[in-house]
Amino acid sequence: MQDIRVVTDFPRKVREIGNLWIPMPDGIKLAARVWLPEDAEADPVPAILEYLPYRKRDGTVERDALTHPYFAGHGYAGVRVDMRGSGDSEGLCKGEYLKQEQDDCLAVIEWLARQSWCSGSVGMIGISWGGFNGLQVAARRPPALKAVVSLCSTDDRYNDDVHYLGGAMMCDNLMWGTTAWAIAMTPPDPLIVGDRWRDLWEQRLNGNGIWMQDWFEHQRRDDFYKHGSICEDYSDVEIPVYAVGGWADGYPNPIFRMLEKLGGPRKGLIGPWGHKYPHFAMPGPRIGFLQECLRWWDQYLKGIDTGIADEPMLRAWIQDPARPAAIYDERPGRWVAEPAWPGPGVGEKVLNLAPHVLSEGKGEDAILEISSPQTAGLSSGAWCGYGVMPTLPVDQRTEEGNVLIFETAPLTEAIEILGFPEFEVRLSSDKPVALLSATLSQVFPEGAASRISYGILNLSHRNDDLDIEPMVPGQAETVRIKLRCCGQRFEVGERIRLALATSHWPIVFPTAEQATLSIHCGDSRLILPVRPPQPLDDTLGAFLGAESATPMEQEVLAKGDGFQRTVSTDQATGETVYQVVNDGGTVRHPHTQMTVAARHVDRFTIHPDDPNSAVGTCTWEKSYDRGDWQARLSVKATVRALRKVWRIETHITAHDGDELIVDRSEVKEYPRDLN
């Protein structure tokens, strides 16, 4: 992995404002950290806003140190704001992407544009939550907001986020739900808010709520998810959008949709990366992403022609074959480009199904059945890979007894694909509610199989997410499932594999009943987005090398247990446990003298023969410490996939030193709605 060049000498000297209060119309104050040129009062600069609930004081502090001073040194004000009810800001945060969150952001942008050190132009940058709300706020059209850089984000809150995948209940609904709950319950820093920190904390503990309960209550694509989904009306977003992501991340799909559907200036960049900024992401290669951002900001916030507006709309990394591994330092491959999307250089390669065979010949009229054990999918890794931890899919050979396999003969010529593979299948189900999982893999001559893409469909959602209806048992229908987008090269001698299953654990929870699907081979086909090399690829200039501002100093007081991911099976009972432990140890931040510690465990258990045995339990333990100030938080959430209901059990404790201030348990049930 290449090093990141640390830049200390910038065109403009930088000063930092550790905390600055931004007033909201209702009197609530939001806490901001600001980096800007020392001479910005005399020579005002555009502001670049990152707006998050992830605690500017300690949560994103390492990333912020790499990024915002760099922007400031090049003539911008880097502004990192804690959302209402989070970090050091006042008020309550009752959920994701609420109208209140957007309204506050509109007020922040208006306030920034009025500051004497600001030129009146504002951009928004963010990854994940910050990428989401950049798009959502752009759709509200505040006059001062001129451009957005949105990383690892979505245009569709229902079907391309952590909640539902093809209408199936995602296990991330619990994992992220517990993480978000823990974040929402953390205290502000007394050095920022003073003695009222305890009152503000108790307001959060009693008022911010458990957001995942909303996600289990809303199991369909209703107004809850339509709000904040710019795919409901892409024309709402008129300003330039730079959409960025990676193949190892959970959010590559929206990039292609936004390139196709947005009407204003837009650009897409997809590398091999996980859920991180590309100047420090894994797998590599890393790029000079901050320099790329400056070209975007200079173009649209300062009116300087950097040439970025004239470059191809999409730049994507075509990955070369790599043996399966849970983590990679780098993925070999090459950059390619398309002038628009759908790409004029992308065609279709159709592979028809015969029993256990994929070929360009005519399909064979045969019916094959599949009823997977509930443990099918354990090789899939995390839905959203962060790259820096070993969470990527492992060898798919471990799934061969769980799935129905269709495979090509060894390829006689290399092919490259870019875009969305699709699977069109005629099938029937013996149950009204069933899952179809389709996994695309690259099989090496010695047999190792690397997952390239996959798709999951709750067959009740086979028409779309609004026209939901159960299957008629025994009645065959033609269904089309779009797999996750990808960019991949297949070499001569390798095989292309399609694996079908009726479960995909622990990416999604199982349906309430074990189903058997009957696959009609003769009427089914795999459609690959094949892309031959294009002349445009050879015109691309190389990205600059990765750069950043000076990394933040920190003192490791205790290393913790690090990261562990294990699968174990009790051979006597058959119960299988998938567990992830992430213990970051204890760290002191010298710039604030705050000591922080965090540990979380995700544990999922299931019996291969019983979908109602599926149980997920997630825990978080966090502590904050400085001198006499000691705050500790523990949260635990369990979801049980029972036949008729989703049962959610939660427990939270919070301590101020040795004083227990919250100890609360709750059990709620939500009827299963065709999932």
Structural description of this entry:
This is CocE/NonD family hydrolase. By secondary structure, this protein is mainly beta. The chain contains ten helices and 34 strands. Strands 2-3-5-4-6-7-10-11-12-13 form a ten-stranded mixed sheet, with helices on both faces. Strands 27, 28, 29, 30, 31, 32, 33 and 34 form an eight-stranded antiparallel sheet that branches. Strands 14, 15, 16, 19, 22 and 25 form a six-stranded antiparallel sheet that branches. The longest helix has 16 residues, at 99-114. The radius of gyration is 25 Å and the shape is globular. The model has no long low-confidence stretch (mean pLDDT 97).
How do the strands and helices of this protein lay out in sequence?
Blueprint: E1 5-6, E2 14-23, E3 29-37, E4 45-52, H1 61-73, E5 77-82, H2 99-114, E6 118-127, H3 129-140, E7 145-151, E8 164-165, E9 168-169, H4 172-184, H5 190-193, H6 197-207, H7 212-217, H8 223-226, E10 241-246, H9 253-261, E11 266-271, H10 289-301, E12 314-319, E13 333-338, E14 347-354, E15 357-359, E16 367-370, E17 404-407, E18 415-419, E19 422-429, E20 435-443, E21 449-458, E22 477-482, E23 486-490, E24 495-501, E25 517-530, E26 547-548, E27 555-558, E28 562-569, E29 576-589, E30 594-607, E31 610-626, E32 629-641, E33 645-656, E34 659-671
Parallel strand pairs: 1-26, 4-5, 4-6, 6-7, 7-10, 10-11, 11-12
Antiparallel strand pairs: 2-3, 3-5, 8-9, 12-13, 14-15, 14-25, 16-25, 17-24, 18-23, 19-22, 19-25, 20-21, 20-24, 27-29, 28-29, 29-30, 30-31, 31-32, 32-33, 33-34
Helix pairs in contact: 2-3
Keywords: Hydrolase
GO molecular function: hydrolase activity
Protein name: CocE/NonD family hydrolase
